[in-house]
Amino acid sequence: MFKRMTTGWRLACQRRRLAHQWRWLRARLRHEGDRLAIEEVRGTQAWLQGCESWLQSNEGEMRLQSGSALESEFRRWRERFSPSGATGAILETLLVVGILVLGIRTFLIHPMWVPTGSMEPSFRGPAIESIKGGAVLQTRGLWTRLHRFVFYGERAVRSEARESGRLQLVDAAPRRLGPFRLWQRYAIGDMVHRVWFPPPQLWLHAGLKDGAVFKAGAEVIHLRVRSGDWMWVDRLSINFRRPRRGDAVVFRASSIDALPSAPFYLKRLVGFAGEQISIGDDGKIRADGVVPETLDGEGVPFYVNGAVAHANGYAAVAPRFPTEDSFFTVRDRRVFVLGDHSALSLDSRVWGDVPEGAIVSRQAWVVWPFFRSGF
Fold it and tell me: Within this chain, do residues 159 and 189 fall inside the same structural domain, yes or no?
């Protein structure tokens, strides 16, 4: 009985080894068989057939002997193949996947992050708000934090003083691991506090300066950090239908000399070549003196000219439109674009019209945060 158990265990181990060898040799023959001689290909195929028959048979002690012979023969056939064959197959697969991803990003869809709030409320940019002294956000509980971040793109950054004393900002800039901000430290008294995953310009947004006095348990930092929208940009339909007035279009920023360095910009198309664009004090866009139907009615943003911006204390966001009587003539093969959040948008009111050929998309889907998913 003991001998039968030992034989069964040895057969099971041998079966696992031979099954692995059979799969390996079959894959190598498929990928590298074209560089072998005909006799070597036939010999390898014969071994594969013999191994497959062995795996399906059940001959006890004699099966062990025949299995050992197959393993010895496998070592001889393995030497015929390149030891880097598996690596080559993996590299080949990665190359094909890379070409597919590049093709999809170039011709079908392209991921994009909204870096500013110039298109709110249609597309949301990042925001950091200090709420120190206000209602305490739910910062405790892993599932609560995950729910707020995954579904709403929001998280809280909060820190309390663990002892009384004067504030000293230890790290002027956060410690990084590649593009990721890991932590930033401050000290109160002899106690060093670490803020994990801080937002950019932490001390500025938190309103902290060296020398401020805090008591133990006092709230030092309490920020609400909101991520910008992530979206898929449709790069296919632009080849079959021209953008229409009112579409949110994505265009290459390199086409405008005055733009900051960024690969793409997202704005709303409001004017076409040959039109005289003006912005009234009533917040309406006029093309050749007429308010277009698609830019009139509920839900249309209030666009700001220079006079309205000055009267409301905004920055100089419309140097080309100091008054409602000012107009801009869109040049040939160009379009006029504006941001929905007009008081904070850098757009055609500053740097003029955009080449039609620079537009890469006329449609986008928000995919994260999930509660904002959709067109």
Answer: yes
Q: Which residues on neighbouring strands pair with residue 230, listed in sequence order? A: 113, 368
Q: Check whether residue 183 and residue 273 sit in a common domain.
A: no
Q: Can you give the CATH number for the domain in which 235 is found?
A: 2.10.109.10
Q: Could you tell me the residue range of the domain that residue 331 belongs to?
A: 231-372
* 358 located within any domain: yes
Encoding tokens for residue 111?
């991921």
Domain boundary among the residues 194, 226, 258 is at 226
CA–CA dist 103, 95 (Å, integer):
12
Whether the CB-CB separation of 277 and 271 falls below 8 Å is answered with: yes
In eight-state DSSP terms, residue 217 is: T
Measured between alpha carbons, how far is 43 from 33 in angstroms, rounded to an integer?
12
| Pair (235, 360) in one structural domain | yes
Domain boundary among 205, 226, 247: 226
Does a structural domain hold residue 303?
Answer: yes
67 and 184 within one domain:
no
Residue identified by tokens 């960024």 is 262
Successive 10-residue mean pLDDT values, the chain, 375 residues: 71 83 80 74 82 74 72 74 62 86 84 88 89 62 83 90 93 91 93 92 92 91 91 88 91 79 86 94 93 86 91 86 93 94 90 92 86 68
How far is Cα 287 from Cα 271, in angstroms, rounded to an integer?
A: 7
Burial 106-120 (b: 16+ CB within 10 A, else e): eeebbebebebbbbb
CA distance 344 to 318: 10
Sort 185 into a burial class: Cβ within 10 Å, 0-12 / 13-18 / 19+.
middle
pTM of the model: 0.69
Tell me the C-alpha distance between 128 and 131, whole Å: 10
Task: Please report, in angstroms and rounded to a whole number, the separation of the first and last CA atoms in the chain.
Answer: 71
Structural domains in the chain (count): 3
**Euclidean distance between CA atoms 152 and 369, whole angstroms:** 5
